[in-house]
Structure formats: C-alpha cells, structure tokens
Fold this sequence. Notes:
The structure is a homodimer. By secondary structure, chain A is an alpha/beta fold. The first copy, chain A, folds into 3 domains: 7-50, Orthogonal Bundle (434 Repressor (Amino-terminal Domain)), CATH 1.10.260; 64-156 and 286-310, Response regulator (Rossmann fold), CATH 3.40.50; 160-283, Rossmann fold. Chain A has helices at residues 7-14, 18-26, 33-46, 52-59, 75-90, 104-114, 130-139, 160-172, 188-203, 218-231, 241-253, 286-299; strands at residues 64-69, 94-99, 120-124, 141-145, 153-158, 177-182, 207-212, 235-238, 263-265, 281-283, 306-310, 312-314. In chain A, the strands form 3 sheets. Chain A has a 6-stranded parallel β-sheet, sandwiched between helices. In chain A, strands 7-6-8-9 form a 4-stranded parallel β-sheet, with helices on both faces. Chain A has a two-stranded antiparallel ribbon with strand order 10-12. In chain A, strand 8, helix 11 (241-253) and strand 9 form a beta-alpha-beta unit. In chain A, helix 2 packs across helix 3 and helix 5 crosses helix 12. The radius of gyration of chain A is 25 Å and the shape is elongated. Chains A and B meet through helix 4, helix 5, strand 2, helix 6 and helix 11 of A and helix 4, helix 5, strand 2, helix 6 and helix 11 of B. The structure holds a DNA duplex.
Amino acid sequence: MAKPPTIVDVAHMLGVAPSTVSRAFNNPRILKPDTVARVLAKAAELGYVPNRHAQALTTGRSGLVGLVIRDVSNPFFARAIRATQREAERLSLNAIVVECDSDADREQRLIDRVLPQVEGLVLASTRLSAARLTELSRRTRVVLVNSDLAGFTRVLASASEALDQGIRLLAGAGARKLAYVGGPPYSWSEAERWGTVRRVAAERGLAVTYVSANMGTYGEGRAAAVSIAEAEVDAVVAFDDVIAHGVLDGLTILGVRVPEDVRLLGCDDALPIETHPRLSTVRLDIEQAFVTAVRALAEGSVSGQRILVPGVLTVRETT
Amino acid sequence: MAKPPTIVDVAHMLGVAPSTVSRAFNNPRILKPDTVARVLAKAAELGYVPNRHAQALTTGRSGLVGLVIRDVSNPFFARAIRATQREAERLSLNAIVVECDSDADREQRLIDRVLPQVEGLVLASTRLSAARLTELSRRTRVVLVNSDLAGFTRVLASASEALDQGIRLLAGAGARKLAYVGGPPYSWSEAERWGTVRRVAAERGLAVTYVSANMGTYGEGRAAAVSIAEAEVDAVVAFDDVIAHGVLDGLTILGVRVPEDVRLLGCDDALPIETHPRLSTVRLDIEQAFVTAVRALAEGSVSGQRILVPGVLTVRETT
DNA sequence: TCTTCACATGCAAACGTTTGCATGTCAGTG
DNA sequence: CACTGACATGCAAACGTTTGCATGTGAAGA
C-alpha cells in the first residue's frame, strides 16, 4: 500500500503547475488540448487518482449521499437501495445506507453520525418529528420519501388510486366484509392506505375491520390470520406483501382457502419470491420514487415540491 | 444552511489555540481537565462538529468502509448489510454499500469509484479475478467473505458440515435419488455446497443430478422443478432459500407434494417470510461472518487468515 | 534562592486539492 | 512597429484538521 501519487507528483514530472493538472481534470476546455492530453496520459501512467478528501475539503462536496431506511430486510427497501445507488452512480455519487429500525432516537443518532460526510440525505419513511426535520434541514439538504411534510421536497409512492381500484374489484366480486391489516402506525404510507381503504369501503357500503401488524413482519401477518378468520370477512387488504404473505400462510394453516373463501390484496410488489397462489398486489414504482429523490438532492432543489408517484394494481391469483 | 463553526471559531471564543480544541477531542488526557471541560462546553454550545473531510485529509482515515455485494434484493445480503452496518457503527465507522450484479467489470468499476473514499473493503462473494484482487489489495485493505483465496484475510460462512448432516438425514429417511439445484457458478459457496453434496451422496451411495439456477433467482428455481419432477428424485437440496422456494412453488404447481413425495432442503435461512410448509434449511451465521470481516478490516489485520463460520442444520417441515 | 523538570499549551507545517488573480506569450489590428 | 486582447499557464491562498516541536509556567528538590 505505497502512498498514491498526488497531483504535485504528476505536475513535477511534466514540469507544469499543480493547478494545470487539476484543470486538466476539472476544466479541460480552458487548457491547450495538447496539454490536457499529456497530463491525462501521465496521470494514467502513474495511476494518479484524485484524493476525494482533499477535494471535499476545498469544494465542500463529498460525493456522498445518505439513504436512511428502516429495515434492510424488508424487500421494499431493497428496491429503494438499488434505485438510489444506481441513480447515485449515474450522478457520480456514492450512497451510504443507514438502517435505523423504526426508532426515532437511533435514527437521529445515526443521522448525526453520517451528517458530516454527506452532501445530502434521502429519508425514507422517517420517524423524526417535524421539529427535528426542520432542524436537520438547516444543516444539510434533505429529501423525504413517503413522508408528507409541507415545506420539504418529498416524493410519495402512492398506492391510493390502485387500492381504490382493487377494492372496487373486490366489491364487484361480491365482497361485503373487509379486513385491513395495518402496518407501522404514524407512517405516511399507513395513513394513506388505511385512509383509502376506509373511504372506499364506506363509499361501497363495505364493513371493514382493522387488524394491526405494527412492526410489519411476516409473523404478525400470520398471527393476524386468526382474528381475520374469526371476523369471517370476504376479503383482506394488507399493508404490504410481507404481511400479506403472513396472512396467506396463517389462513392456509387454519384451513381457509385463498382466494376461494377469502380474497387477499397486498401492496409493494417487492418480494424476491412468490408463493402459491401468487399474490395480487399494488405495484409501487419505488425505483421512480427514489431516483426522483436522489435527483432532487443532487440538483440542490430545496424547492419543497410534493411529487406523487402512483402505483398500479396488479391482479394475480389471490383476488 | 449557514456554514458550521470550525475548530478555530471555538478556539478564538475561548482564547485558546486551535490545537487545544483538537486535543480536547482527540487526546483529552494531556490537557488540564478544566480546559477540556471548557472546550467541550463551548463546542457543544456552538454546535461544533469536526469536519470529517479535513480530518480525513490529515489523518488519512475517512471513517468509511465499503461493502461490495452482488444483489441487494437477495435476503442473504440484507443480513450482510445489517451486520456490517451494525459493527461499523460500533467501531465509529460508516458503511457504504455497493451492489454490482455478478458482473466483474461493473464490480471493478464501482470499486474504483469508492476506493478513494474508504479505508477498506469487504467483498462478499466477489467475482474479481485473483490478479485483480491482488492489485486491489495494494491500494486498500481488503477482507473477503465467501471467497477462499490464499493470502487474503477471508471469512467463510460454511454450510458443509450442516449439509452433510442434512443429507444423512435425508438418506436415513429413505432417499435414494437426489437433485442439487446449483446457484451462481464460480462462487466459493456453490463450490463448497455442490462439493459437499456430491461427496456425501457418493459416501451414502445416493444418485445425484445437478440442475442449475445460475442467477440464483426464484424464477429459475421454479423452472428447475420441471426437470426435478422428471428425474423422479426423492429429495432436493437447493443452493439457497430463494431457489428452494422457487422449487417448492414449481413442484406444488406440478402436483408434487413436499415433503411427502419429495423432501427439500434450502440454505441461508434469511428470508423475511415463510411459506407453507416451512422450509428446512441450513442457517448460516451471516452476522458473525460480516462482523468478523469488519473487525478484521478495522484492526488492519492484513494477516491473511482463513476464518470459518459454520452454519447449523435447521429442520422444519420440508424434510 | 536557584535549578530542574513535568506539564499544559501555543506555533506552524503539513495533508492534496481548487480557484481567483497575476503573468507571459503571441496573433491580429491600426 | 507598437498596442490590444485573447489565451494558456503559473502562483499562492484557502479549506479545517492534526501533530511534532517549541515555549512558558510553576512546583519540587537542592
């Protein structure tokens, strides 16, 4: 691990000034093409790579964005990570991923830690209070995903419209009693989904019972199946696919057939696997949402706009 | 986003030298306790936070480690990311995650990009050639996970022993014909697993057919079910749980019952969900593996040791 | 009372870039 | 042939730390 060559090394070997080398990389058009070529050639020969720390120090730009999520094992966030990283790559950035477990204090702590290294932060379904977010936005650029807080640039992956369609479909197929298995409370997604379910159910004259799966785990979904079976509903809408799969498994164990006895609709469409029968769901355009978020960050748009990215109903075998 | 206070601001307000402030943070014991207290208090009051870029420039330490993986949506890597980040956190580091899709060139490109920012790299199931790795190790610290290359510090999450047990269990239950559904070729894990299956099968006098699922996706697993059914085997061992679940679904569609007609054993135990019947598998200690890797990096142990982390057989309902 | 030394702190260089300004050259114009 | 500019490049300061060395202080020992 010999120490790498610096801009000065390259400059000396060529008998030019360090600034010339710097410009050959950052501002080649103001140099004589021949000079640029010589510098680049020599740099390649020596294996010169700019020192990002030094660059960051002078320019204030570190080339890093932070992505703050709740749970890496949730497939939703897998898609989020991939999209974020891909877009960052396109913008010559690197992404640093932080998992913070639905715990606001931990989230704050971890954010404080990455803060000094990043140019900006994408917060997915953050648990931070409005006050803390405002404070945060004074220290760095912030873009919110799936949090609808006025004044912030925010991207919302909306399931509302597709869910509406889905419920009408269920009602059309004869469903009268509905259960909604809710996910993490206080999240924008939960509020939007539960709100939509309640509203549309009311419009269509469907009864709806609420069952909770606060942590959003598979196990909770399976446990929820018991109360669902007791409630003798015709259809279930779940907060997301992980929960939906839990419900599916739970119902199967109890001898309830899906979709014959009960129809089931999930949300996200992010699972790396399928089950049998294949789950009907709302496919969210998570990629689009995070790509948009990263772009907004990079552009430095502190515009505070509210961007909605709609999902689409994907009917498979459980409805 | 007013520009944050620097060490010099703090120093001036207190009438001390910048170096004193620096020492109050990094080397408090050589200062008068009272001074330390005053500095810390004033720093807190001003909201002073050390500039990591400047620190990185002088010390050469960026506080960042890179984690290079193949596929974020694979649950194996979800556990890897979590463990890495947690351990990094404990060591006051941040982790930067890079997904590179089983593509050596892309991997090289992305590594080159993060290289200047990180103190070291954890490469999980890398696709890089030995030559490239050697070259890489001259430029930064490298720890390998699930690649067994002599000379490098490497951590191996081994399924061998547990797989051996599992196959003996299958044989004991009367299995005579085995299928192995292989994952990404050229990976150490694949070599170890397939090697173990073949060896143990031979020892027990079992016939074994190889079916491939090169990309390691659910869909390939499901497709593989067809050839499995044709081969009329008694038991299937799959490279990992994602594939195993695909196989399970595929077999179910074909009317083959698991475990009655065919027994099924997966590997990893990382899925955020379960299916019905619950999958028997080898639970790998992925956390332990990555925690070890990060520690080795942080300690700067270029010792080149080979660390084996064994998995345990977890019998559930498919065997 | 003078010397010695430990201890606490200050000074200034260094880390590797970027960038505003100064300088030098040369072609084109009058 | 002198003058103006455009153009290419050099010079040096700045970014915010860390750290080896120098300095100043006061207490302990002689």
